Amino acid sequence: IVVVTSGGTTAPLERAQVRCVDNFSSGARGARLVEELLRRGDCDVVMLQREGSCAPHERMVNESLVNDSRAREIGRAPHALIVVRFKTLYEYLTSLKATCEAVGDEAKARGGRAVVVLAAAVSDFYVPWCDLPEHKIQSSAHSAAGLELTLKPVPKMLGMIKHEWCPEAFAVGFKLETDVDLLADKARKSLERYRLDAVVANELTTRYDYVTVFAADGS
Predict the structure, then answer these.
(1) With respect to CATH, is domain 1-64+76-123+150-168 assigned 2.30.330.10?
(2) What are the residue boundaries of the structural domains of the chain, listed by start?
(3) Could you please report the per-residue DSSP string of the chain?
(4) The organism sits in which domain of life (predicted)?
């Protein structure tokens, strides 16, 4: 069983959310990973997908408008695909915990091993729920002085996957940086800090061209 997370999370600025802090992740990489897993046909897939982000086979559906043979490939996967959708950071973390725990138990019952591929772009900073205003922030109340926000670091939950939620899983993380000189060091630190089995590292301007994979065995 493979869990794939995909798309970006939002960090709400109100409990009754009107405004939020978001990122530019389209979810394309996660969607293509799911497509390939289904094409291989040797595993069930649980996808945690950001609402409105790229969906598996979306690209194939567009191509099928001019190519019937591509259309016939859709739906042939012999294994199951379960999609769990999220939008906010809170929804993502709650869904990730529940999914990892359930998938870990099911994989163990089958005598196999779960795989968790963390391709989602998770918010680094947020306003904690206890600090969020209940209603929409009124622009008229801040028009003169401006609006100041205090964002706090999001608790790092990557380590919880191997420590508690799904200890036997093969876990793959992703690391995106804008400074290529920081990439290798940060990827290796993620491997050690969160007990990941592999980290897929890429730099912002070349992320569509190539990636570097760092493995826990040093390769």
Answers:
(1) no
(2) 1-64+76-123+150-168, 172-218
(3) -EEEEESBPBEESSSS-S-EE------HHHHHHHHHHHHHTSS-EEEEEETTS--TTHHHHHHHTT-HHHHHHTT--SS-EEEEEE-BHHHHHHHHHHHHHHHHHHHHHHT---EEEE-SB--SEE--GGGS-SSPPPGGGTTTT------EEPPP-HHHIIIII-TT-EEEEEEEES-HHHHHHHHHHHHHHHT-SEEEEEEGGGTTT--EEEETT--
(4) Eukaryota
Q: How far apart are CA 174 and CA 191, in angstroms?
A: 10
Nearest to 89 by CA among 52, 129, 136, 53: 129
User: Residue 5: which of 35, 31, 26 has the closest Cα?
Assistant: 31
Contact between 178 and 204 (Cβ < 8 Å):
yes
pLDDT in tens, 49-81: 999 999 998 755 555 554 555 445 545 555 689
Residues 171-210: pLDDT tens digits?
999 999 889 899 999 999 999 999 999 999 999 888 888 8
37: nearest Cα among 119, 111, 94: 119
Beta strands 81-86; 45-50: pairing state: parallel
